[in-house]
Here is the input.
Amino acid sequence: MTDLDTLVGEWLNLVDLAEILDIEVGKARGMVRDRQIVGIKRGNPKVFQVPARFVLPDVEGRPGIIPTLRGTVMVLSDAQFTEEEILEWLFTPNDELGERPVDALVNGKRAAVRRVAQTLL
Here is the structure.
């Protein structure tokens, strides 16, 4: 198990993500392409997976992706972070935030997370 596996915990492949969100797998792939969600290939055999924590049970009345995730991913991408580095940053406890950035996003602290992320540029 890698450190990223330890940090993230539960993962979903795109079929599982699509099922939870009640969408087609092609739409789930589009969400990855559009950077609404980020993941990596992992496991044996290697399969593209995303952290389950990115899925909230109630976004506008149904399961959905953390609404503020995409903007944060874009800030980190602008700082030249790879997908693995983005995931590591999101799932590593941050002293300035007092929690993991992913949890801060879930708790509605978008501005604080982006402020910390922009210091990485």
